[in-house]
Structures are given as structure tokens and as C-alpha cells.
Write a structure and sequence with these properties.
The chain is built from 6 helices and no strands. It is mainly alpha-helical. The longest helix is centred in the middle third of the chain and has 11 residues, at 41-51.
């Protein structure tokens, strides 16, 4: 997931809010968003459920996408 796509998905929510809501470690989530690490299946599943998208959507790179394109890739979830 590219950083721009991640920011579109989380909208106004902070990483801390998402980490708290999903149970995914804050630092792991931050590093995942910056493409510095991967997450395990269970963390990816929790994030996908939280965002209302698939694990594939989370792992898909959207090169230089505009916000509308990111929303379309993720089923309209922003």
C-alpha cells in the first residue's frame, strides 16, 4: 500500500485511532503505510475489515493515483 493510498483510506483518522480500533501495533501500522515492512495475515485481515476492503486492496500499489482512483480501487471507501 502506498502512503497516499493509506492516507485516503484512513481519512481524518490518526494511525493511533486505527491501531486502537484494530489491535494492530501502531509502529507496525506506520511502517506498513510507509512500505517499510509487511504485516501478517491476521493484521491485514483486521485492517481490511476495518476499512471495508479486501487484503488484496491493501497490498495493491496504486502508482500516482488521484484520490478518486484510490476510492474506486477500494470500493468507494475513504
Amino acid at each position: 500500500m502506498r502512503q497516499r493510498q493509506a492516507r485516503q483510506l484512513r481519512g481524518q483518522r490518526t494511525l493511533l485511532e486505527i491501531a486502537t480500533a484494530t489491535g494492530v501495533d501502531f509502529s507496525a501500522l506506520s511502517r506498513f503505510e510507509r512500505m517499510e515492512r509487511t504485516l501478517g495475515y491476521h493484521d491485514l485481515k483486521r485492517l481490511a475489515e476495518f476499512y471495508g476492503c479486501t487484503i488484496d486492496d491493501l497490498l495493491r500499489e496504486v502508482p500516482d493515483a488521484q484520490p478518486a482512483e484510490v476510492a474506486k480501487v477500494n470500493g468507494g471507501t475513504q
